[in-house]
């Protein structure tokens, strides 16, 4: 277990293209990038094996930081496999043991962990089986994201996109030109509605009030509420370190007998 956790941490830390410390969900909560309720909702689902994407149009908005932070809530014992080419997807299609397949970005750049072309549809289709997928891409709205993934050269079927349980959009704007301060917020969260054939909004950010709102979120059981209480305690204690928070989360799962 320790070896697996170290390997997973290495895969997550490799997401950082700008160096520095890997931010935890507590970092993002304390920065008001995400609310406790949103973090608990998505993290609880990730802990049950949910697949997710983060998205933002501009570079540096924080979509990769959010992606990394949420990976801290993987179920214990699930290895992260970085997808650095079509051969990994091909092997995953034959793998029966649950894994989390991480693409650094769904994009055309020739960089480690980037995925592009027809293989993207096969990659996202892994979420329909025993596996999780997690990645990010450039899009500011659900319409932009659907258009980017469904049109050429990716041509991802809508039925495949609906296997992605959550899609989170990040917004960034400058709030202090002189101090060069930036405000990053999770601007919208969508959850897959397979019956309706689309992702429906469950949270949104009200820019005028700088406040997060639940618009269609219906918690299933007490899991998210319990996790929200856990995250509030971690934030109050000031525990920001990614690895330490991961350790505390695994202990929380064991104490609450979460499989």
Written account of the structure:
This protein has 259 residues and is of the alpha/beta class. The protein has a single domain (2-255), classed as Rossmann fold, CATH 3.40.50.300. It is 37% helix and 22% strand. It contains ten helices and ten strands. It has helices at 2-13, 25-30, 36-46, 63-70, 86-94, 119-125, 142-150, 158-161, 223-237, 242-255; strands spanning 52-55, 80-82, 100-102, 105-106, 114-115, 132-137, 166-176, 181-193, 198-206, 211-214. Strands 2-3-6-1-7-8-9-10 form an eight-stranded mixed sheet. A two-stranded parallel sheet has the order 4-5. A hairpin with a 4-residue loop joins strand 8 and strand 9. Helix 3 (36-46) packs across helix 9 (223-237). The protein is globular. 41% of the residues are buried. The mean pLDDT is 94.
Strand content: 15-25%
Count of extended strands = 10
Q: Give the total of domains.
A: 1
Could you estimate the helical fraction of the residues in percent?
Answer: 25-40%
CATH topology: Rossmann fold
CATH domain class:
Alpha Beta
Q: For the residues shown, what is the average pLDDT?
A: 94
Q: How are the secondary structure elements laid out?
A:
Elements: H1 2-13, H2 25-30, H3 36-46, E1 52-55, H4 63-70, E2 80-82, H5 86-94, E3 100-102, E4 105-106, E5 114-115, H6 119-125, E6 132-137, H7 142-150, H8 158-161, E7 166-176, E8 181-193, E9 198-206, E10 211-214, H9 223-237, H10 242-255
Parallel strand pairs: 1-6, 1-7, 2-3, 3-6, 4-5
Antiparallel strand pairs: 7-8, 8-9, 9-10
């Amino acid at each position: 277990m320790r070896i697996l956790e170290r390997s997973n941490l290495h895969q997550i830390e490799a997401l950082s293209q700008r160096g520095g410390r890997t931010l935890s969900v507590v970092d993002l909560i304390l920065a008001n990038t995400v609310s406790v309720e949103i973090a608990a909702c998505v993290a609880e689902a990730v802990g049950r094996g949910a697949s997710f994407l983060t998205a933002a149009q501009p570079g540096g908005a924080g979509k990769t930081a959010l992606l990394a932070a949420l990976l801290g809530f993987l179920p214990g014992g699930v290895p992260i496999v970085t997808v650095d080419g079509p051969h990994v997807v091909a092997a995953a299609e034959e793998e029966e043991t649950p894994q989390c397949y991480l693409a650094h970005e769904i994009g055309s750049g020739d960089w480690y962990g980037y995925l592009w072309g027809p293989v993207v549809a096969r990659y996202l289709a892994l979420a329909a089986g025993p596996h999780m997928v997690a990645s990010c891409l450039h899009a500011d709205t659900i319409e932009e994201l659907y258009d980017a993934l469904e049109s050429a050269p990716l041509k991802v079927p809508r039925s495949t996109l609906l296997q992605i349980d959550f899609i989170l959009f990040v917004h960034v704007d400058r709030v202090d030109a002189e101090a060069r301060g930036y405000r990053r917020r999770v601007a919208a969260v969508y959850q897959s509605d397979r019956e309706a054939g689309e992702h429906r909004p469950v949270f949104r950010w009200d820019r005028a009030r700088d406040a997060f709102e639940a618009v269609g979120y219906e918690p299933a059981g007490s899991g998210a509420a319990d996790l929200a209480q856990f995250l509030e305690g971690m934030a109050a204690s000031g525990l920001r370190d990614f690895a330490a928070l991961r350790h505390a989360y695994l202990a929380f799962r064991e104490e609450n007998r979460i499989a």
